[in-house]
Every structure is written in structure tokens, then in C-alpha cells.
Amino acid sequence: MNASVKPTPNEGYASNGSHLAPGDVYWQALAQRDPAALANWTLCEPGPGRSLEFTFLATPVRVDFDARRLYHPSPDGWVVRDDPLLELAALMYFSRVKSLHPLCRDIVGLADLSESHFFVGPHTLQLDALPARYGNDLEGFCQAALALGGQLEDMADAAACLWPFPRIPLYFLLWQRDDEFPARIRVLFDRSIDACLPADAIWALVNRVAQLFAEH
């Protein structure tokens, strides 16, 4: 990010400290980046003009640097996508990434991330809807993951890897409820996410993916 364009500490934050929407400062930072270089580093596709396209959970998304909007396809063409959490994550990702970060398949939890202290209080990951929805429905969990472009993994009672960006996997592990314990969900990461996204962007991205996963 250019030194002259830095987010202020409260940019885009709600009163409780959690992000609601990205501010113009992130779009200004993105406007200074080279879409072709970003496409090479992230495996996204160059779009028309100054834009990037990627597949978010099986849905194409376009980030238009000049219009400062996200778009997705519809029967009438590309239309504006009002998706503040995804927008925040995308802007911080594309503003921050500076090289190709290979996936190392070193799968880690929140406690292993360099900014693990962030994910407490108002920034606790919002995952409760997933065990509520799939705690007694492992088949539904697996079907939803596949429909979102994910792949099943051999972990927990059911697990899936979802891809919100081409080089950022998120692993969702589900343990179904039984006579002793309630249903539980856990999210794991490829360790390379630490080099690609700051904690607030990880928070926004995981929450948005979990929301769509639970609604599917």
C-alpha cells in the first residue's frame, strides 16, 4: 500500500469495533495497483478495463478499480453486488498482496495466526449458524459445500474446503451433536493466509463464507 494512502484506525468500523463496510481509502489504495500483476499473484483473471475477476464460492465476481464496485453476472449482464464483508476482504487482499504465496498445506487454526489476539470479543468469528443448521445433517453440510464449489475433506465428522479466492482456502470442520456434546464447528486455514490478509479481513471473509454456507 502506498505510504500516502493508509487507513485511519477507525476507518470502516462500527461502534462495537467490527467492520461494517470498507472506506474509500481502500479503493484509493487499490487504484494504485497493477491489475495484471495482481492477477498473476492471486490467480484471478484480468477483467475489462482496470478490473479483476475471481470465483467466490462458485459465483463469478468482478472488482472494478475505477467504478469502485463489486459486480456479479445476472441474466441482464454484470450487476452491482452489494456485499460489504466480501468487498472489505477483497480490497484488503488486493491492496496488500505483493507476491505469489504458495499454498503450503500447513493447515492451522486461529491460535496459530500471527494476529490471533484479534479474534476475541466483537471479533469472535460468527459461526453459530452452521452447527445450528447442520448439526444433525452431515449430508446437507456436504451437499452445500459441493454446491459452493468446495471439496470434501477427511476430518472431523464432516469437513469441507471452500475457496472464496483462488489461492485462499478455508477449511470448515463439523462435529455433529450427540448425547454428550452440542454440535461444533471449527475453521482452519492454510498458513499462507497470514502473508495475504490482515486479521480484520480474515474476520470479514470467514463470516461472509459462513453466512452463505449456513443459508445454502
Topology:
Layout: H1 24-31, H2 35-42, E1 45-46, E2 51-56, E3 59-64, E4 69-74, E5 77-80, H3 84-96, E6 107-108, H4 129-134, H5 138-147, E7 151-153, E8 158-165, E9 168-175, E10 184-190, H6 193-196, H7 199-215
Helix pairs in contact: 1-3, 3-7
Regarding quaternary structure, what we see is single chain
Strand order of the biggest β-sheet: 1-2-3-4-5
Written as H for each helix and E for each strand, in order along the chain, the element string is: HHEEEEEHEHHEEEEHH
**What's the rounded overall pLDDT mean?**
88
Count of DSSP-assigned helices: 7
Straight-line distance between termini: 36 Å
Radius of gyration: 17 Å
Helix/strand/pairing category: alpha+beta
As residue ranges, the low-confidence spans are 1-20
Q: How would you describe the overall organization of this protein?
A:
This protein has about 220 residues and is an alpha+beta fold. It is about 30% helix and about 25% strand. The protein has 2 domains: about 25-95, no CATH class; about 105-215. It is globular. It starts with about 25 loop residues before the first helix and ends with a helix. The relative contact order is 0.16.
In short:
The chain is α+β, with helices and mostly antiparallel strands and 216 residues long. It has seven helices and ten strands.
